[in-house]
C-alpha cells in the first residue's frame, strides 16, 4: 500500500480505529436498513410533507447512462437532450401553475422561497424602493418567515379567522406602501383552500405589493385551478412532494420557482434559452438577475424524475391524482371525525387536521398517539403543526395509497383512541416494538452524533 499511497494519507497509527470485515459491515448496514421506515414499506401520512410513492420508472429513467455520465460542464452542443429536458419541465410547470417562466435551480422548497423573495426584492428595488415588510398568515409554514427575514424583510403576521382562512379585514388594515408582498400557502397548512385568494391578490396589487404563494404542495390543485389565474406573481413548487421525486435523507430535493412575466428578468442565471437556429444554451447575460443560487442548473436527476412523472400521467392523470388525493384525505376525515376532534369545520382538501383535544382529557397527547402508531406499523402523521392548532395531528395520505392501506391506518387510529380511553399508559409509553423507545428528541436534534470518533 505504502508504495501507492503517500505516507501521510495512511491512518495506520490512528488509535482506537476498529477493524471490520466486509461481511460485518454489509450486515451492519443491511440490518439498519430493515429497522427503518420508508415509503416502499407503507403509508407515510406526514401532512404538508406529501410523502407519496416514488414510481420506479422515474428511477429507471434517471439512471440511464446518457444522463448519469453527462458532466454539467460539457459544452452546450453535447447536452442538447439534457437542456431540452430542463426546458420541457419548465414548460410543464409553467402550464400546471399558470405562470410565465420557471427556474429549476433551487435545491429545496425553502431555497425556492429565498429565491422568490430575493426576486421580489430586486423587482421593488428596480422600481426605486425595496419596501420593508412581508405579510405572512399565522397558518404559514415555518420556512416562510425564515426566508423573508433572511432576505432582509420585517415580518408581519396576519391572523386567521374562525374558518381557518386569512382574515380579510385584518389583512386590509395591514396592506400599505411598506409592504413588499404577502407570502401565502394555498391550500393553507390547515388543508383549507384560501377561498378569498383572488380578492387578496387584488388588494395587494392595488397597493403595488406582490403575491408570493408557497406552492410546495400542489397536490390538491393540479389540473383543477392554477395559482397564476388567481393573481399569484411568484411561487415555488416542491418536486419532492407533488411530483414524486424522493425526499431523500436530507438528500437532493428540488424547489423550482415560477414567476409572472414582470419578474422574469430577475430569474437566477443561467437560464436555459434557445438560439434563433433552435439550439439550447445556458444564457448568462441577464443584467437584472439575482445571480446564481445553486451549482450548475440545480439537481438534474430530480428534474428528470419529475418530468417522467408528469409525462407518464399526462394532463388528465395529474388531475385525477389531485382528485384522489382530496378524496383520500376526506375519507380519513369522515372515518375519524367522531373520534378525533376536527381542528376546523371548513372542507378539507389534500390533508386533514385534527387535534388531540378529546384524548388529552386522559393526558394522552399528540406525540403519544404518533409514537403508538409506530407499533401498529405506520409512520406517524405530522404532529404539533400547524402551530395555531393546539395538539395538531395533520394527516396527508396522498393519492398513491390503496383503500386497504387507508383502512388499516384508520383502524389503527381508532384502536389508539380506545386505548387512550381504557389503558392510557399503553399509549403514553409507546413505542413498544421498536429498537429504541422514547429517545431524547431535543438532544438528538441539538447534539447529533453523526460520526464515529476514536476513543
Ligand atoms: C415542505 C414545505 C416547505 C419547505 O420545503 P423544503 O423542501 O423542506 O425546504 C415549505 N412550505 C410548505 C407549505 C411545505 O410543505
Describe what this molecule looks like in 3D.
The chain has 455 residues and is an alpha/beta fold. The chain has two domains: 56-311, Aspartate Aminotransferase, domain 2; 315-435, Aspartate Aminotransferase, domain 1, CATH 3.90.1150. 37% of the residues lie in helices and 12% in strands. It has a seven-stranded mixed β-sheet with strand order 1-7-6-5-4-2-3, sandwiched between helices. It has a four-stranded antiparallel β-sheet with strand order 10-11-13-12, with helices on one face. Strand 8 (271-274) and strand 9 (280-283) form a beta hairpin. It is globular and about 70 Å long. Pyridoxal-5'-phosphate binds at residues 48-49, 108-110, 141, 143, 185, 214, 216-217, 238, 253, 255. Residues 48-49, 108-110, 141, 143, 185, 214, 216-217, 238, 253, 255 line the site of pyridoxal-5'-phosphate.
Amino acid at each position: 500500500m505504502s508504495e501507492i499511497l503517500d505516507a501521510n494519507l495512511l491512518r495506520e497509527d490512528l488509535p482506537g480505529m476498529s477493524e471490520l470485515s466486509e461481511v460485518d459491515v454489509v450486515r451492519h448496514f443491511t440490518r439498519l436498513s430493515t429497522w427503518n421506515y420508508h415509503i416502499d414499506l407503507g403509508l407515510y401520512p406526514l401532512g404538508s410533507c406529501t410523502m407519496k410513492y416514488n414510481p420506479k420508472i422515474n428511477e429507471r429513467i434517471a439512471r440511464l447512462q446518457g444522463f448519469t455520465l453527462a458532466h454539467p460542464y460539457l459544452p452546450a452542443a453535447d447536452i442538447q437532450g439534457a437542456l431540452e429536458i430542463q426546458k420541457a419541465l419548465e414548460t410543464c410547470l409553467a402550464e400546471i401553475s399558470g405562470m410565465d417562466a420557471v427556474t429549476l435551480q433551487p435545491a429545496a422548497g425553502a431555497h425556492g422561497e429565498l429565491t422568490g423573495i430575493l426576486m421580489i426584492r430586486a423587482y421593488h428595488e428596480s422600481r426605486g424602493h425595496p419596501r420593508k415588510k412581508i405579510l405572512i398568515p399565522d397558518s404559514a409554514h415555518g420556512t416562510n418567515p425564515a426566508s423573508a427575514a433572511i432576505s432582509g424583510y420585517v415580518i408581519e403576521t396576519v391572523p386567521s379567522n374562525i374558518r381557518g382562512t386569512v382574515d380579510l379585514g385584518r389583512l386590509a388594515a395591514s396592506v400599505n406602501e411598506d409592504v413588499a408582498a404577502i407570502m401565502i400557502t394555498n391550500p393553507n397548512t390547515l388543508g383549507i383552500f384560501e377561498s378569498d385568494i383572488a380578492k387578496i391578490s387584488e388588494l395587494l396589487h392595488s397597493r403595488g405589493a406582490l403575491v408570493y404563494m408557497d406552492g410546495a404542495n400542489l397536490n390538491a390543485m393540479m389540473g383543477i385551478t392554477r395559482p397564476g389565474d388567481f393573481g399569484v406573481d411568484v411561487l415555488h413548487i416542491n418536486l419532492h412532494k407533488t411530483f414524486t421525486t424522493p425526499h431523500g435523507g436530507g438528500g437532493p430535493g428540488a424547489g423550482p420557482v415560477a414567476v409572472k412575466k414582470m419578474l422574469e428578468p430577475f430569474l437566477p442565471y443561467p437560464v436555459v434559452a434557445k438560439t434563433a437556429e433552435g439550439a439550447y444554451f445556458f444564457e448568462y447575460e441577464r443584467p437584472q438577475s439575482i445571480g446564481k443560487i445553486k451549482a450548475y442548473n440545480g439537481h438534474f436527476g430530480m428534474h428528470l424524475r419529475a418530468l417522467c412523472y408528469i409525462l407518464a400521467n399526462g394532463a388528465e392523470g395529474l388531475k385525477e391524482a389531485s382528485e384522489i388525493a382530496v378524496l383520500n384525505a376526506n375519507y380519513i376525515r369522515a372515518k375519524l371525525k367522531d373520534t378525533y376532534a376536527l381542528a376546523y369545520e371548513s372542507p378539507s382538501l389534500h390533508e386533514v387536521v385534527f387535534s388531540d383535544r378529546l384524548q388529552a382529557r386522559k393526558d394522552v397527547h399528540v406525540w403519544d398517539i404518533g409514537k403508538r402508531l409506530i407499533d401498529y406499523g405506520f409512520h406517524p402523521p405530522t404532529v404539533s403543526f400547524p402551530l395555531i392548532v393546539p395538539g395538531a395531528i395533520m394527516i396527508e395520505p396522498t393519492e398513491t395509497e390503496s383503500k386497504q392501506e387507508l383502512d388499516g391506518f384508520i383502524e389503527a387510529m381508532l384502536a389508539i383512541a380506545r386505548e387512550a380511553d381504557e389503558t392510557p399508559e399503553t399509549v403514553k409509553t409507546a413505542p413498544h416494538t421498536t429498537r429504541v423507545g422514547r429517545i431524547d428528541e431535543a438532544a438528538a436534534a441539538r447534539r447529533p452524533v453523526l460520526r464515529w470518533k476514536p476513543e
